[in-house]
Amino acid sequence: MIVRTTTEITDTDRDVAADNGNWRSKRIILAGDGVGFSFHETTIEAGTINEFHYQNHVEAVWLVEGEGELVDLDNNRSYPLGPGSMYLLNGHEKHRVFARTQMRMLCVFNPPVTGREVHDENGVYPLVEVG
């Protein structure tokens, strides 16, 4: 059994922030935990626009606080986001998230991230093997 709190991982190597300060991701479960997925609490700052493209991962996102907009850049569709909204990037869609207010999201990645990934210039996480 694994029991962790976001408080205990704050300011550790599991607490990752964007260089530009737009978002912060607390990686509660990582690949090294050996459960087949990773689980993160991600906060996106109000007024920011962020582009992501997870070519190597499927991500499920559940918005628990805040409001914004999701733009599917592959299919030119836009979706309002508010508490209770969920989106699943099962087609590895390139997407943009605009946070009208600060947004707090709970995210699941498969395959799990290791915690060492860094978004490249296209917003992509490379596939990093555990080890």
UniProtKB/TrEMBL annotation:
Keyword flag Lyase: yes
One Gene Ontology term of the molecular function aspect: ectoine synthase activity
EC number: 4.2.1.108
Stored CDD domains: cupin_EctC (cd06978)
Annotated pathway: Amine and polyamine biosynthesis; ectoine biosynthesis; L-ectoine from L-aspartate 4-semialdehyde: step 3/3
HAMAP family, sorted: Ectoine_synth
Protein name, entry field: L-ectoine synthase
Species of origin: Speluncibacter jeojiensis
